[in-house]
TrEMBL record:
<dbReference type="Pfam" id="PF22908">
    <property type="entry name" value="PHD_NSD"/>
</dbReference>
<dbReference type="InterPro" id="IPR011011">
    <property type="entry name" value="Znf_FYVE_PHD"/>
</dbReference>
<dbReference type="InterPro" id="IPR055198">
    <property type="entry name" value="NSD_PHD"/>
</dbReference>
<feature type="compositionally biased region" description="Polar residues">
    <location>
        <begin position="276"/>
        <end position="293"/>
    </location>
</feature>
<dbReference type="GO" id="GO:0006338">
    <property type="term" value="P:chromatin remodeling"/>
</dbReference>
<dbReference type="GO" id="GO:0008270">
    <property type="term" value="F:zinc ion binding"/>
</dbReference>
<dbReference type="InterPro" id="IPR013083">
    <property type="entry name" value="Znf_RING/FYVE/PHD"/>
</dbReference>
<keyword id="KW-0479">Metal-binding</keyword>
<feature type="domain" description="Zinc finger PHD-type">
    <location>
        <begin position="156"/>
        <end position="231"/>
    </location>
</feature>
<keyword id="KW-0863">Zinc-finger</keyword>
<feature type="region of interest" description="Disordered">
    <location>
        <begin position="1"/>
        <end position="27"/>
    </location>
</feature>
<feature type="domain" description="Zinc finger PHD-type">
    <location>
        <begin position="89"/>
        <end position="155"/>
    </location>
</feature>
<dbReference type="InterPro" id="IPR001965">
    <property type="entry name" value="Znf_PHD"/>
</dbReference>
<feature type="region of interest" description="Disordered">
    <location>
        <begin position="264"/>
        <end position="293"/>
    </location>
</feature>
<protein>
    <recommendedName>
        <fullName>Zinc finger PHD-type domain-containing protein</fullName>
    </recommendedName>
</protein>
<keyword id="KW-0862">Zinc</keyword>
Length: 320
């Protein structure tokens, strides 16, 4: 079978028809997701995020190396915190930005169905048009106007051709850390499929097989690689696993209601209010602008020396 070649312009050209209406903008639906954990890059029993970023994670509670993925993962009801709060990293520069299409997004997702990569318009334009500032500027404007685009991970960095999974030499080798992609036939020799020990040894950087959920080894039609821009940690056999940033959930939490709203039984009738006796203790007047005027402390039979903190109901307690 002859390889299928896709021209550079067809891969990059945004769809004609202007920007996308904000009211009609929707996140990408979930597909099958990635076969590998987005944190440790291993296969096995992984769970795909429901939010549309196409990433998968290890959620196992087993006492294993993979159980560490759960400890650093921000996941809520099988949805990563990035998708929950609509904040994703630019796959080029790594900066965490808003991807909320209902407001003012800073990063935009590639239009390819199984691609979960987000980019700043400036970053993706620079990657696709490194030699033409004018074309990069025009492309940046189009992406910022929400026109669909295809990111550089879907073309070979050497020959600029597209992918053909049915032709061995035209299968893609995609880096897990950056938008660098090769055809198998274009893969450089310094990205090896095997590790070599010894003084002149090197670490493995390419894999064309993976471990399925049942433990069986399955050949892949897309190669996983770490390109030479990323240093391999010998103990991990991967680059540093600090590449994913989750939003700070504390900044997005809804305020909790500490006291329930009063019910009808809690509200006194008008007659009770009129018959209520005035307080015997007049409210003290504050002597300083920085002091508050509050009621007297609650009555207690304990000596005052035991109360090292303010009494509940007096100034000095939060929420009073």
């Amino acid at each position: 079978m002859a390889p299928v070649d896709s021209s550079r312009s067809n891969l990059r050209r945004p769809e004609i028809g202007g920007g996308i209406d904000q009211k009609l903008s929707k996140p990408k639906p979930r597909l099958d997701g990635d076969d590998f954990c987005a944190i440790c890059d291993n296969g096995g029993n992984v769970t795909c995020c429901d939010g549309g970023c196409q990433r998968s994670f290890h959620l196992t509670d087993e006492n294993s190396e993979r159980s560490k993925c759960r400890l650093i993962l921000g996941l809520s009801k099988e949805q990563a915190e990035n998708c929950k709060y609509k904040k994703h990293q630019c796959f080029a520069c790594g900066e965490l930005e808003s991807s909320d299409l209902s407001s003012e997004p800073k990063v935009f997702q590639c239009e390819v169905d199984d691609c979960g990569r987000f980019y700043h318009p400036k970053c993706v334009a620079k990657l696709l048009y490194p030699e033409s500032k004018l074309e990069a500027l025009l492309f940046k404007v189009q992406v910022a106007a929400r026109e669909n685009f295809t990111c550089p991970a879907h073309e070979c960095i050497v020959c600029k051709g597209g992918e053909n999974k049915n032709h061995r030499n035209m299968q893609f080798a995609v880096c897990r850390r950056c938008p660098t992609t090769y055809h198998r036939k274009c893969l450089p020799s310094n990205i090896p499929f095997e590790m070599k020990k010894g003084p002149n040894g090197y670490m493995q950087r390419a894999w064309d097989e993976w471990e399925g959920p049942d433990g069986h080894i399955i050949p892949r039609d897309r190669i996983l690689i770490y390109c030479t821009k990323h240093e391999i940690i010998k103990k991990l056999r991967t680059p540093k696993r600090n590449h994913i940033i989750f939003p700070d959930a504390k900044k997005h939490r809804e305020p909790q209601i500490l006291v329930d709203a009063p019910t009808e039984e809690d509200i006194p009738e008008e007659g009770m209010l009129n018959n209520a006796e005035p307080s015997q203790s007049p409210t003290p007047v504050a002597n300083d602008q920085n002091q508050c005027s509050c009621s007297s402390p609650i009555d207690s039979f304990a000596p005052a020396s035991l109360f090292t903190y303010p009494h509940p109901g007096t100034c000095g307690w939060l929420g009073d």
